[in-house]
Hints:
By secondary structure, the chain is α/β, with parallel strands linked by helices. The chain is built from 13 helices and 13 strands. Strand 6 (179-184), helix 7 (198-205) and strand 7 form a beta-alpha-beta unit.
Amino acid sequence: MKAYKSMSREELLTLKASLDEQFKTEEAKGLSFNMARGKPGASQLALSMPMLDIINSQADMNTLLGNDTRNYGDWDGIGECRRLLADMMGVKKDNVIVCGNSSLNIMYDTVVRSMVKGVNGSRPWCQLEKVKFLCPVPGYDRHFRITETFGIEMVNIPLYEDGPDMDLVEQYVNNDEAVKGIWCVPKYSNPTGTTYSDEVVRRLANLKPKAEVFRIFWDNAYCIHHLYDDIHDEILNILDECEKAGNPNMVYIFASTSKISFPGSGVSAIATSKENMDFIQKYMGVQTIGHDKINQLRHARFFQNIDGLNAHMKKHAALLRPKFEAVLSTLDKELTGAEIGSWIKPRGGYFISFNALPGCAKAIVAKCKSLGVVLTDAGATNPYGNDPDDSNIRIAPSFPTPEELKDATRMFVLCVKLVSVDKLLNEI
């Protein structure tokens, strides 16, 4: 395929006319596809339906230790569920607190607690003149919404193939006392699929913060979400590395079963040091008398152990892989050589990150909407919804069927081509 940038004005005009006709044809079909969020498809949700038969009115409701899950107690999570999630997160059971169905809720609570009560006895963040968070970009929009909600200044940190720009991270953390935290999705990152290298993990663990307290918010949402049976990204245990570096309290690890069992009824957990846990529990004990232990029991009995979790995730991968490949094969076929976009082929996670020509992302997303293809808002992968390059687009292939994805991606490509031609024509 000839690069669009090398085309003459006449060639671009001829191409535009053809693309405009294709656009009118597709628009008339009135189709509807949603690739805005990483929602499991119906076939994925069906995998966990037998879990609902685990607990009924005749079931034994006691934990392995004999505690009645119908009643008070085990407010930090039942033992067998703590073990299950600890093994999933690669940490010790004693470092885990099991919570409700959303790890995002734990992250929100952790920021709120830091704002109003400080961290382990430090001055509350709300009393400080300025609080900053480092935000690897492209990143997860809901992370950014949490910090923006509390007026925390967000600082863009470029995300590379091996993780965030650590030279820049160290420069900020080690020299600016206002920097209190960093958001990280360290494995199969949202949206790029990036997995942090060993060097990056070690450099994060060995940070020397100028701030009184600094915390790494380690959202390992996709820790066992592999797309391929024979290709698994591995990552160092950040909790262990922080301990080795003399920074045992510097990290909070978050995870959940939202995309393993049910987004509407999963279980989540935070893993951290004993000192951090003591501080968290001090206030969590005021906030709640316990999360849904019956649901924890249901999960523990259904999955049994980490082997059960991994076997279940192979079933998810078998459903997700054709969807990702449907998108990627269309991008490869239609855009390779055109030099109007680039994309990453992830080995796990839930997203495909596409970079259009600068200044084109918003227009592409808008044109896609006209064809019935709903994407995440352009700019959402940056703090404040502002992508300075107006380039990054997050594609979420999980919800539509593979057949629908072929059509949706074909229309996406059409919009990429149209907007790119318009940009180049305006520059001639």
